[in-house]
Amino acid sequence: MVSLPDVLPRTSPLLMIDISVPRSISADCALLDGVEVRDVDALEPFAEETRCQYADEVSKVEWLVNAAVDEFGQWTRSRSGAPAITALRMRADEVRDAEVERTLRKLSHLSERDQNLVRAMANAVTRKLTHDPILALREAETDQEAEHILRTLGVSRA
């Protein structure tokens, strides 16, 4: 407990705030010139006034936090399909690359430019064929739904 001898002699003002229960600062300390003692009970009116002043701001901040939480939830749900999308793209690319290489071996007479055109055409076909399944995977709300889409397409997550 802080008592009178602890704060004597004083040459400058002193504010003592006692937030403990039971009190740690003797009430006698407030009798000294330049010493002000506040306890939890004395702070309550200030706290209530501050709560009232900021009530509108608190509700605005709560609204912003809730909006951010909702947005984050939507983003997380949209990301839940990412591994499935990656698996689909990898499988589509594997099939495309294997078929392009197999075909180009049979068409060895094609120029480099023509071979690149075949590759570009195969890439375009792959992108177009995987577009709708990728959209479906992005919209999948559960891993089970994404797995069902992959199974339907004959893709496994290796």
Structure commentary:
- With 158 residues, this protein is mainly alpha-helical.
- Among the domains are: 4-40, no CATH class; 80-152, no CATH class.
- Helices cover 68% and strands 6% of the residues.
- The protein has helices spanning 4-7, 40-79, 82-106, 112-139, 143-152; strands at residues 14-18, 35-39.
- It has a two-stranded parallel sheet.
- α3 (82-106) runs antiparallel to α4 and α4 runs antiparallel to α5 (143-152).
Key terms:
mainly alpha; two-stranded parallel ribbon; 158 residues; rod-shaped; 68% helix
Q: Looking at the structure, what is the overall shape?
A: rod-shaped
What are the low-pLDDT stretches, counting only 5+ consecutive residues below 50?
none
**What percent of the residues sit in helical stretches (DSSP H or I)?**
55-70%
| Rg | 36 Å
Strand order of the biggest β-sheet:
1-2
Q: Helices and strands, in N-to-C order?
A: HEEHHHH
End-to-end Cα distance, whole Å, is 68 Å
SS-based class: mainly alpha
The total of helices stands at: 5
Q: Largest sheet, if any?
A: 2 strands, parallel
Strand fraction: 5-15%
How many strands in all?
Answer: 2
